[in-house]
Amino acid sequence: MSEAAPGLPDSPAYATEERAVLAAAIRELIDVTMSVEDVDGTTLREVAQQIEQLAFRMGHGRIDGPGYRPRDHSDYLPRSPIVGEASPLSPRLDWNTTEDDNGRIVVDGRGTFGAPYEGPPGFVHGGWIACAFDEMLGIANIVSGHPGMTGRLTVHYRKPTPLFRELRLRAWVERVEGRRIMSRAQLFDGDTLTAEADGLFMQPRPELAEQYFGPREDR
Asked: For an engineered disulfide with 171, which of 70, 115, 136, 158 has Cβ 3.0 to 4.6 Å away?
């Protein structure tokens, strides 16, 4: 099972405006590294040395492991590889919630996948599309009051999804049966449906939730 956006934004101590600015700058560096070819070797080596120095400056005294001590299971969304404003890996899909004609809460996400997310030339890698679906479905589950963990994710790729275009992603909970949450999502380029997904999520039993994430009062 994979995680599915299991919590609320991290504490202000981590999710600061300054860290978001840093992540955006690194994101730009990654994009440039992936897309600019006409750079001489000397410049590449000099930039690499500068990056190593900056990494040492920030990481001096870093603890073993991921480099941080999460307070609880909710320390996630700022680090998310899809929506995390503090993650250099994230394409930064912004999202909000609306209510459709059936009274369902719908998560509406928008964003652009750049050069680091390329699969076929000019198009988004299918694995990143699956990751985006998993994340947005998880968020839809949470805002609907049915958080869970991914048990199965089925992606239907309808058309190639282009890079460097603003995409729209919709996700909602279709139905709930006990601990089973069935959710759906769609990805659009303009009015064109490029992919859709069906997800089966499971709410872990209380004893497993405590084993995975700690006592409830700490979550």
From this structure: 136
- pTM reported for the whole predicted model: 0.81
Q: Count other Cβ atoms within 10 Å, centred on residue 205.
A: 10
Backbone angles phi, psi at 19, to 5 degrees: -70, -35
**Vertex 10, ends 217 and 14: CA angle to 5°?**
125
Torsion sign (Cα): 39, 29, 132, 171? negative
Strand partners, 170: 108, 186
For residue 156, give Cα distances in angstroms to 21, 196, 197: 35, 5, 6
Give the pLDDT confidence of 15-70 residue by residue, as tens digits: 788 988 999 999 999 999 998 889 999 999 999 999 999 988 887 766 666 555 55
Please check whether residue 18 is in contact with residue 82, taking contact to mean a CB–CB distance below 8 angstroms: no
How many angstroms separate the most distant Cα atoms in the chain? Answer: 61
The secondary element (H helix, E strand) that includes residue 108 is: strand 105-111
